[in-house]
Amino acid sequence: MKRPLIEFNDVTKRFGDRTVLDKVNLRIYENEITTVIGKSGTGKTVLLKHMIGLLIPDEGAILFEGKPMAAMKRKEWDAYRSRIAYLFQGNALMDSMTVFENIALPLRQTTRLTKGEIEKRVLRRIEDLELTDAVHIYPAELSGGMQKRVALARALVTDPKIVLFDEPTTGQDPIRKNMILSMISHYRRRFGFTAVLISHDIPDVFFISDRIVILWEGSIGFEGTYDELVKLKHPMIDEFLKSLEGFGDELTGLLSREAFRVQYGSLLGRDAAAQPTVSAALFQIETDHLQEHLGHQAAAEVLKALGEFANAQFAPVGGFSARCGRNEILTVFPGKTPEEAERLVAGFGSKLQGRRLQAMERKARALKGSTCVGFHISAGIAEISYSDKIEQIIKKAQASQHILASHQCDA
Fold it and tell me: Is the dihedral of CA 100, 104, 106, 109 positive or negative?
């Protein structure tokens, strides 16, 4: 059995007469993204601050790699702290320092790198976070979104093993939210760090999370995967999920996963004779390739355009769509046979293949001033059985995926 990297055992924290954390038991596993969600004021930030030692539990124990933090010697504690970066909700940028100086600060304080080595690392993170034009600007001169990206660049500049994100996308527009969450997922895969997020950005955060934790009235109400969450029948879970039904996918304008499930569930409740056939299509876009060459914001812009175009094409014929993954869109066609769905999707592909993909790529490329980047969109068709769950539909459609449209650059 895999050992937790960080473990809370019956952790209780009080502020005066108020108990914020009440016998919390929690496990954080290495190289995973764990997202903590819950209502405002339930102690999410308090939980995060315990992991970095900014707060000490009144009762219980916190373990790192099986050893209680309270039992660590000074050298062990310093080694643990050097492996953690913390992205504060308020950014905590130094107003008297430029963007470059803010990002360089952790390296200057905690490493013995040369001036040239520090500059190289900082400039690399500045480019990663698309902050090149802000190198010599002070935080007060930046928008809230750019300040958040500076804080993220500073958190990642030391190549930490554990990164704690306290509301990393607060105050961002849908494109920036998607960009920041995509960057967290991308860097986690690239550098292999463990991430713990506090976030209200549902459903986007579900697309990148390996585990979900619901903090409910000071205790852990749920801990597990998103698929386990939606299958669990519990009054607290039901209340929480119902609160999500109104959330649309801000980036694409499509249904949220929960709203999609409700609409799909209504199909299953109909008389099969009245609705004999249902088909679905799964669309996938090469966001990783776009991110690598054009950056995360450009990839988000392309995904947004694809979602909006899919909705415009399929909603008039009764199709309804949701973003079911970081770079996937699932569309259900009530009353359509696979052959009819295939024709609808082929027509959609033809319109994409015309000038639509080229326009998407040009708009994305304009954000970075890069050369042309080729990419493609795949699609798969599946006939739905009335006993199929959404996860089964996705697997069926994945099995028949093929390239639907591609944008090729001129030689």
Answer: negative
pTM: 0.68
pLDDT at 227: 75
Give the list of residues 6+ apart from residue 59 with CB closer than 8 angstroms, or none.
10, 11, 12, 23
* Residue type, position 141, single letter: E
Tokens 């902050």 appear where? 131
The pLDDT-based confidence of 205 (bands split at 50, 70, 90) is: confident
Q: Identify which has the larger pLDDT, 341 or 239.
A: 341
3 state SS of 66: coil
CB 93 within 8 A of CB 151: yes
Contact (Cβ atoms closer than 8 angstroms) between residue 101 and residue 136: no
Q: For residue 74, give the amino acid letter.
A: R
pLDDT digits (tens, 9 = 90+) for 134-155: 899 999 898 777 888 888 889 8
Q: Where are the beta strands (DSSP E) in 181-309?
A: 194-198, 211-216, 219-224, 278-285
Nearest alpha carbon to residue 122 among 89, 94, 155: 155
First-to-last C-alpha distance (Å) of the chain: 52
Tokens standing for 180? 């920041």
Beta strand 33-37 with 84-87 is unpaired
Q: Which CATH class is domain 257-407?
A: alpha beta
3 state DSSP class of 299: helix
The 10 Å Cβ neighbour count of residue 251 is: 22
CB contact at 8 A, 43 and 215: yes
Domains of the chain, residue spans:
6-242, 257-407
Which residues have C-beta within 8 Å of that of residue 345, sequence separation ≥ 6? Answer: 281, 379, 381, 404
Q: Which residues in 167-224 belong to E strands, given as ranges?
A: 194-198, 211-216, 219-224
What superfamily in CATH does domain 6-242 come from?
P-loop containing nucleotide triphosphate hydrolases (3.40.50.300)
Contact 169, 251 (CB under 8 A): no
Distances (CA, A) of 20 to 43, 87, 105: 6, 21, 33
